[in-house]
Amino acid sequence: MYFRFLEIAFLIGFSEMPSIKAQNVSLRFRVYDNADGMISPKGAGQISTTQGAKRWVNALKGVSFDLSDGKRLGLIGRNGSGKSTLLKAIAGLLPVTSGHIDVDGEISALIDIAHGMRIEATGERNIILRGMIAGLSKADAKARVLEIAAFAELEDYIRMPVRTYSSGMAMRLNFAIATAFEPDILIVDEWLGAGDRIFQQKAQKRMHSLVDRSGALVLASHDLALIEHQTDEALWLDAGRVEAAGASGDVVSQYMKATR
What we know:
ATP-binding, four-stranded antiparallel sheet, ABC transporter ATP-binding protein, transport, alpha/beta, Bact_Polysacc_Export_ATP-bd, nucleotide-binding
């Protein structure tokens, strides 16, 4: 009985390890602007026309990958290749057209620095709400207010509505909140920075620490050195398809040779 208990405990613990599994994921957008038939020669692909003259952009086409706990996945490719679309699909911000994405664990997504802010609420209220969404009790979230306000350099404004903030103040607050709570899975679109040079240096240091603490990472970037340094594996996306997948160094090398 004791060993059966250990087996069950192991299986439960294993099932709760952060992971992402994407299988044959495709995603398309409806196009309402009657353009010239292409997004651009370097975009995500041709606009297809279906019955009734409906037009679609095929942004992702049969993308698959498996990311387990402790692994870091890099996404590379030219503008319009589908990197940001894939990140948004993983985060649940965009529904896939076919295939499926299975995610185990809580996701913290740094895709849009303004995403998730309630502008009528105070900075303090935003911190508490986001902390509770991340799984903290209200008391624990409130206990983090001063620390987050100090990092965002908003001590004197934290009890004012966010709508009264400058764009730089709002960006600093959102970055500070998004990186304050330890996620199971971290999703990052480019290596985000906010504010002036001094704050960006502080933000970069915090991002490195957050990546080290996260259970799994998906990072999209044009900085190939960053992808090689911060990720274990990489996907090279081109026109919504996986052009290459494997060890980050190998994929980056293939990409550089093809685009040189």
